[in-house]
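Collaborator request log, item 7. Partner lab (contact: R.S.) asked for a structural prediction of DUF262 domain-containing protein to inform their binding assays.
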Amino acid sequence: MPTQAKEIFEAQSKSVRELFSDNGLGLYLPPYQRPYGWGKDKVEKLLDDTLHGLKNLSKAPDSFTFLGTVITIHDVNHVTVKPIVKSEVPAKVLTVIDGQQRLSSLLILLVCLHNLIRQRAWQVFKGETPDPTDSIRTHLNSETSDILQMLAAAFYERKNYGIKPPIYPRLIRAFVDQWAKDEKLKQYDSPIANLIYKYSLLVEGESVSSKPTDFKPAARQDAGEGEGDLIKRFSEIRTGLIKLSQRKSIEELEALPPLATLATSIDFQRALFNHELAPELCGWLEDLEDGPEAELMRLIMFAAYALNRIALTVVQGKDEDYAFTIFESLNTTGEPLTAFETFLPRVVMAEEIQDYQDSDAYVYMKEVQGYLDRFDVGDKLQNATRDLLVTFALAETGEKLSKRLPDQRVYMRDTFERHKESADDRNAYLRHLRDTAAFIGNAWEPARNSPRALPGLEAAAMTDTVKLCLAFLSSLNHTIAIAPLVRFYSEAVYADEGEARAECIAEFEKAIKAITAFTVFWRATRRGTGNIDSRYRAVMAGVDSLTGVGPLARHRAVPDPSKPDPTVDADALQKELAARLSHPEHGAIPNLASFLADASALPIYKISRPLARFLLLAAYHDTIEDPKNPGLIIQGKTGVASCFTADGWADETHLTVEHIAPQQFTGGWDAEFYNDKETVHKLGNLVLAPGAANASLSSRPWTEKKVLYAALGAPTADDARSILNGSGLSFAQTTEDLASMSRFLPHLRALGQSENKWDPTLMDQRADVLLRLAYTRLKGWLGLELSDSSTDPVLKVENDELEVSDDATGAVETS
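Returned to partner:
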């Protein structure tokens, strides 16, 4: 018979009293729940909502204050409770999936009210039962006793075990708390359970005839995370309630309704207490304004509203998966738990709770958490976690994991379950997750003001080329490249020290160079991304390989002994990427000629500014002015003009992408640049120049602009001054300011030496030179041969190996 909706979940609206005071109820916080973290603003809003509700109730007896939805699992078999004394668990355990911050805050509000009402009751009654003939004090004492009993029943329960019935806090947290009647087994160490338990012990241990101890909790040494916030919120609630009871105003909070309103409105009394107050008490309350009795009655009024008129919708799901699905559907303003947070308890249970903190798994998970702790709870944390797990899934099994929370939770659960029975396999899985987080958090996107690093590797592993490639790929937001890089990084981290480690580090650098070159050649020859992500995913999964290489991912998503094993090999990756670039059904860039034809026709600046900058840096590196072609550059000696470096990439002060012919048409420029709006954005019209000089460069005509280029690229400041002063031109900036920006940049000097009019023909000639230089510099990173004309060798894939051929057609064949 098909499953009915009511079998999957049920939802009931309950008052605070109905929820917390349910006989045999225990609320349980699973280990992935965040520590208590409500701020002062949220506590003030809880108080204000309650006060506003009280005010409305005095006018409309059917009003409630609704605090939203709490998502729970009715854990009938107690499978979520760890640790556990099975025979002593509360009869009904609700595992809280969402709402623990509200529930914890409501409980400390109830504890605080109970404590303050006890204090005021002592001031009024001194622990003695009023004379029966004093009907006013007798009724006041009865209302006091009733509200204290209701409050106490909401935050703890006395179990009927033995001579000394044990106290069970209503809310406890996994791993650090345990319900039990035996003193040796019970454990209430979490901030919320400890606060409730200590206060409950205090209440149960003191005689009604003695002055009650005023409960003022203090944070314990080495207490669990969140205790400081919990204690602060308790103190703030206490202060607020005291002021309210004394009719002192609190900024931005409403006041309590006057006692006279309570005394004269029977509907108000029934709504608050579920009964009418005695007429004698009402008559007395009408004129009561100050003193302990008035303060006591105001606290009772507030407590009655909190218990009976604050409501929540409690959803009870069949199991964890259903509960999270319900949560995703209902939650619109809350802060859902991330897939990593819900994955954590599976790791803990696999390691066994008592062994977890001494395990390798604990270390790995702490390091992942350390990375995620950078992000504020909310969208930033959710996005960081989703991105981490998408990358991890690609590196682990070559799968394209969606960013939907349910899908990510299922993926982490299912893939971890495959390794659950073997400690070594579990550790390898978690270590790989840790490596992914370490790479993203240190090499790809380091914390603010921190340099890029490769944790676990020698500092020398972060070579200048690696830094340059990482900075470029990150700037391009090319996150698909992280997964293959993680595989090589992880191999290097766990290689034996010495020669093996050095080889793995060299493999990592070779891999990042191959990935960077492939990405540049691919993106520079397409208007968009050209579906490049799918190529990387295929490489990670080992799908449709052109060279017969196995998957780069750590495991296949579906094991298949008939297919090649996973391979972490930079040569193999280089060959596969080169084959995909050259294949006519993939990249269709088999040689330099095809690269030049496609890249020169595209508006590179519009496609990607980081890509344009990277190509220009690669082209400019160690070049000099071309003496045969003024305005152009040629390759020079090593070290003559170093800019294709990590420092060159970071130096946007002197090396910012600018347009030679301005983006908008002005006088002094060839109108042909503007017949097609894309022309000015082609690589040949782009230059790297000091951004600070833009005010002077601006939209000046070519004859003036080239003077500035010559000055800005001059070898010395004196040379720059000479050029500027000899020009007879005036600029937006002073000669001295412009001279101070100068730096030996042959590509700028070359433009300054141009004897021709700047027009699309010259721009195309320059583009051809720049793209050739960039291709020549990067081709070796991908294992390509220079293949410009019919006499040059071209790439050929034959017998699953990449070779060089003399095929005059320039075509690439596949076997």
